[in-house]
Amino acid sequence: MSNLIYLDNSATTFPKPDFVYDFMCKFYREHGVNHGRSGFDAAIETESLVQETRKLLTGLFNGDDPNRLTFSYNATDSLNMILQGLAEPGDHVVTTMLEHNSVLRPLYHLSLDKIINVTYIPFDSQGYVEPDDIKKALRINTKMVVVNHCSNVIGTIQPLEEIGKICKEHGVLFVVDSSQSAGAIPIDMKKMGIDIIVFTGHKCLMGPTGIGGSYVMEGVNVRHSRYGGTGVRSAQKTHLDEYPYRLECGTLNILGVAGLNAGVKWILERGIDKLHDHEMALWNKLLNGLQNIENITIYCAGSIIHHNPVLSLNIKGFDSGDVGTLLDVDYNIAVRTGLQCAPMVHELLGTDKIHGTVRLSIGPFNTEDHIDTAINALADIAAIGKNRNV
């Protein structure tokens, strides 16, 4: 395991910084109690950590009110609450073919239940959505536009500021899935015109699995979809309307919040731009090393600009799953293969018919040696593929 070359950071960043592991262990040993429920010292310390983490993330997204930063299990959990909490019968929703199933499936079920209609905007040959295509898709009953900031398959970063401006001009809510971008790319909700941002902790924010959340701008009304304990006004029969309780019920994942707190601090200390530059330098090295190898097809990697360190490819003569197995067994390289929970991306690329792609995604702890090994390994497999048919 110590020799593992991990290139699946789009799924979950690994390893986490030692600072994150150490802080989680120490905090949970000393303060692993319910927050906001009691007045003893450990509970007060736990509540203080929760509030500090709300403030850290609110600042990261340039929000105003930390109470409107709410926690959940992950981005999928929050997207379900947000999309179901916004949608009303007769609404129209515009989204893109870049979306993860965390957006596609909730919207599909809302459509299946005849609550909403959905328009899916394609991306161009380089992997970008044209803002004007979103503008043309808007209708009088369009409630919201939902966009994946960065594709988990091809790594392209979408022009949020331009899309946000269109949404504001037409009075449409703008919901952004930042699962692949929060912590990797600066996000300014005000500048970008974002009404709701959804994030997960276990990717670029360097936290553990099981923690995520959303930030909802003032004036945006998301209906309740869950009810339960808050530790506040327990005699009240209905769930509380104010934030953060509006989108939180029951005991929070305190261990997850602690890890997320440490992860955000680690990122801010090192600098988002500096971390991104390191990863993209490795991505560029990977791209340059692979693009001239015969039998390798690379998807939507025309420019290092507006891109995250994600590269999808296929090798002629091999199913993507077989390439992943060879990389794992013969070279101790971990990658993701298949459809990566984003079927419409592959539908538009045409890779849905060949079982998806091989995805390599780079993180802050990858090195040039890792990339050299990956290039050589893929070159070896491509050479074998010359004589195979699948």
What would you say about this model in short?
With 390 residues, the protein is of the alpha/beta class. The protein has two domains: 126 residues, Alpha-Beta Complex (Aspartate Aminotransferase, domain 1), CATH 3.90.1150.10; 252 residues, Type I PLP-dependent aspartate aminotransferase-like (Major domain) (Aspartate Aminotransferase, domain 2, 3-Layer(aba) Sandwich).
Topology:
Elements: E1 5-6, H1 18-31, H2 41-61, E2 69-72, H3 75-86, E3 91-96, H4 101-112, E4 116-121, H5 131-137, E5 142-148, H6 160-169, E6 173-177, H7 189-192, E7 196-200, E8 212-216, H8 254-270, H9 272-290, E9 296-299, E10 310-315, H10 320-331, E11 333-334, E12 336-338, H11 343-349, E13 357-361, H12 368-385
Parallel strand pairs: 1-11, 3-4, 3-5, 5-6, 6-7
Antiparallel strand pairs: 2-8, 7-8, 9-10, 10-13, 12-13
Helix pairs in contact: 1-8, 2-8, 3-4, 5-6, 9-12, 10-12
Model description:
By secondary structure, this protein is of the alpha/beta class. It has 2 domains: 5-15 and 271-385, Aspartate Aminotransferase, domain 1 (Alpha-Beta Complex); 18-269, Aspartate Aminotransferase, domain 2 (3-Layer(aba) Sandwich). It contains 12 helices and 13 strands. The chain has helices spanning 18-31, 41-61, 75-86, 101-112, 131-137, 160-169, 189-192, 254-270, 272-290, 320-331, 343-349, 368-385; strands at 5-6, 69-72, 91-96, 116-121, 142-148, 173-177, 196-200, 212-216, 296-299, 310-315, 333-334, 336-338, 357-361. Strands 2-8-7-6-5-3-4 form a 7-stranded mixed sheet, sandwiched between helices. Strands 9-10-13-12 form a 4-stranded antiparallel sheet, covered by helices on one side. It has a two-stranded parallel sheet with strand order 1-11. Strand 5 (142-148), helix 6 (160-169) and strand 6 form a beta-alpha-beta unit. Helix 3 runs parallel beside helix 4. The model has no long low-confidence stretch (mean pLDDT 95).
